[in-house]
Amino acid sequence: MNAREIRPGIWWMGAIDWERRMFDELIPLPDGTSYNAYLLRGSEKSALIDTADPSFREELLAQLADVEHLEYLILQHIEQDHSGSAPDVLERFPDVQIVSSPKAAPMIADHLGIPEDRVLTVENGDTLSLGDWTLEFILAPWVHWPETMLTYLREEEVLFTCDLFGSHLATDELFSGDGADVCSPAKRYYAEIMMPFASLIKGHLGKLEPYAVSLIAPSHGPLHDQPEWILEAYRHWVNDPPKNLVLVPYTSMHGSTGRMVHHLTAALNDRGVGVRPFHMSKTDLGEYAIHLVDAATVVFATPTVLVGPHPSIVFAAYLTSALRPKVKHAAVIGSYGWAGKAAERTQELCGALKAEWYEPVFTQGLPTQKTFAALDRLADAIAAHHQTLDRGG
Ligand code: FEO
Prior knowledge:
Radius of gyration: 24 Å
Distance between the termini: 36 Å
Helix content: 25-40%
Bound molecules: MU-OXO-diiron
Strand content: 25-35%
Largest sheet: 7 strands, mixed
Shape: elongated
Number of strands: 21
């Protein structure tokens, strides 16, 4: 993809990665992604904000081929998908001044091998002049690394946000418009990357309120030319109470746990409770994460393997806890062959989950009428806790 001028003097650069299907060997990317960099040509000086994943270094260098001078390379975030081509930019422009937050400077040395004395560090509110344009830096730690900062181009009211407000979406559409096509990928991105830091993001959203913003330029996915929809979406995701929704991550080896999930799902549904089962060997992890943004309850359903939960439920429990959703209640149900501690061990994996736990429901072998009665009581208890919650959309 060639560089594209998004406003006079402001150029999109970087790469659209149509083929990538996995990030961090963990996060599925059903729609690919992009690595957005931005070239700002001020009246006196030029700045490049972020770079691109190193696998696209040649594409970025080709986009920079006709750029005669570059005074600043602003690294808002040091994860390699944005900073990874910085050494190549330095080679092309040996005198360029790297600009970053104070926390980023040692990370630039650690991750990129660039000495700290090449970095000009800026504090919150510091500015940099490009001549007719002024860049203001807004430190925004933990979205989602500790060194992250945002950059505000005052005269144009453009906010460059790196990962914040991004989406893993490969598209040749530069702008998200009213958000109809981007809201779902943006929510997936929020769930997988930002949700563990929701309380800090809440503070950052407040910090951004005084700024007039006509364009949000993230480093993944389309730019937000109608910024209010993404800001409002983030306010909802961060602030709204959980909804009337139960998630049931499950797997089943010989059918017993599967029958229990089937029974509980129907029982919850009969009681007016929204429910989504996710077979952990088959589900798209991103779909599970998206629903975790809203869910009030999670019920882990697992057969017993070597006394503990099935490995796919170990993964589900660990991930659920790590993403720190708003979940208020949780339970473990399942089956065992001869003995087991699957419920206790699943709970132990959820140490960061601030949830109240229901009594586990387990059966030896096939579920019986007694098992189904216990599941009905669990459904009653969940329905009682959910009766004041909205179903949501
Ligand atoms: Fe897109 Fe945290 O890197």
